[in-house]
């Protein structure tokens, strides 16, 4: 499996890509029959992911799958630009069923630019709370259960219930991708609103793999508090026999510095390219 970071808050030095507070990945693998899988996972806030992909020589029109980690607009607003003039009807779209619900914070809309109905017109949609396997070793995890009590669900802005009444948004749709490589599990996240330890533990369970080879993505961790301490403790155990940790997007410098004291933290930025050997 190959992964390229199309958008992140930071860009790597020496490569002149665009950065923005959002995330987008391009993931390549092949299915059990050897057919190529070209997956666009999240799209950032603007068209920066498209400009960066072009500069990297990646043709996003050839994507076979579009997957969203969750509905926040720093992951989904890029859809507006992606869908503009492109026939996406043959692309398979994978997400949690609540991904395209309306969301807002204060006076500002913070959700996806298109409703679920519009998405169903534009893509071949597969929306499910349960894990969706693209290959036996590559999976969209779906809804993440709360496994670790120190990572409870927290409201973030507002959304609507089934009857369109405003309710606090617990970001139930927040999910991640999991890949079982020769060296263990690779977890790729959006913002980890569900909690990175919950995601990793659920990924281990779904993929039937205890070893962790890499964790990359946003973690929504900012303060050097009790939760961060417990997170470091959990991840230290996961990485006790190797692996690499790539915290990015929504992780403060303070949190990264705390994590780097005990975890195998590596630098992340747009243009980062990772490859994981298959089983
Ligand atoms: Zn988010
Ligand atoms: Zn985010």
Structure, explained:
By secondary structure, this protein is an alpha/beta fold. The chain has one domain: Ribonuclease Z/Hydroxyacylglutathione hydrolase-like (Metallo-beta-lactamase, Chain A, 4-Layer Sandwich), CATH 3.60.15. The chain is 20% helix and 27% strand. Helix 6 links the parallel strand 15 and strand 16. The chain starts with a strand and ends with a strand. The site of one zinc ion has 4 residues, from loops.
Topology:
Elements: E1 2-7, E2 24-30, E3 36-41, H1 48-55, E4 65-67, H2 73-76, H3 79-83, E5 92-95, E6 103-105, E7 108-109, H4 116-122, E8 124-127, E9 132-135, E10 138-140, E11 158-160, E12 166-168, E13 176-181, E14 184-189, H5 196-207, E15 212-218, H6 226-238, E16 244-248, H7 253-260, E17 273-275
Parallel strand pairs: 3-4, 4-5, 5-8, 14-15, 15-16
Antiparallel strand pairs: 1-2, 1-17, 2-3, 6-7, 6-11, 9-10, 10-13, 11-12, 13-14
Could you give a short description of this structure?
The protein is α/β, with parallel strands linked by helices. The chain is built from 7 helices and 17 strands.
Q: Write down the overall geometry.
A: globular
Largest beta sheet: strand ordering: 8-5-4-3-2-1-17
Q: Which regions are unreliable across 5 or more consecutive residues at pLDDT < 50? A: none
Ligands in the model, by name, code or SMILES, are: zinc ion
Q: Tell me the CATH topology.
A: Metallo-beta-lactamase, Chain A
| Strand percent estimate | 25-35%
Computed Rg: 17 Å
Number of structural units classed as domains: 1
- Average pLDDT metric: 97
């Amino acid at each position: 499996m190959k992964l390229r970071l199309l958008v992140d808050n930071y860009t790597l030095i020496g490569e002149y890509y665009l950065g923005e507070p959002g995330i987008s990945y391009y993931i390549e693998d092949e299915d059990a029959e050897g057919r190529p899988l070209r997956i666009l996972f999240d799209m950032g806030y603007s068209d920066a992911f498209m400009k960066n992909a072009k500069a990297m020589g990646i043709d996003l029109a050839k994507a076979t799958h579009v997957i969203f980690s969750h509905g926040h607009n720093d992951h989904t607003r890029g859809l507006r630009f992606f869908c503009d003039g492109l026939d996406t009807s043959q692309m398979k779209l994978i997400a949690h069923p609540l991904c395209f619900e309306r969301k807002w914070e204060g006076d500002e809309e913070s959700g996806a630019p298109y409703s679920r109905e519009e998405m169903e017109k534009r893509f071949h949609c597969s929306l499910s709370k349960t894990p969706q396997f693209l290959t036996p070793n590559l999976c969209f995890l779906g809804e993440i259960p709360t496994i670790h009590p120190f990572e409870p669900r927290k409201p973030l802005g507002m959304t609507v219930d089934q009857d369109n009444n405003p309710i606090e948004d617990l970001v139930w749709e927040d999910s991640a991708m999991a890949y079982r490589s020769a060296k263990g599990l690779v977890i790729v996240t959006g913002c980890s609103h569900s909690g990175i330890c919950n995601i990793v533990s659920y990924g281990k369970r779904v993929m039937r793999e205890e070893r962790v080879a890499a964790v990359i993505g946003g973690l929504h961790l900012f303060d050097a508090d009790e939760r961060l301490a417990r997170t470091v403790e959990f991840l230290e155990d996961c990485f006790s026999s190797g692996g690499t940790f790539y915290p990015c997007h929504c992780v403060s410098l303070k949190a990264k510095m705390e994590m780097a004291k005990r975890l195998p933290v590596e630098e992340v930025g747009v243009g980062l390219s990772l490859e994981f050997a298959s089983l």
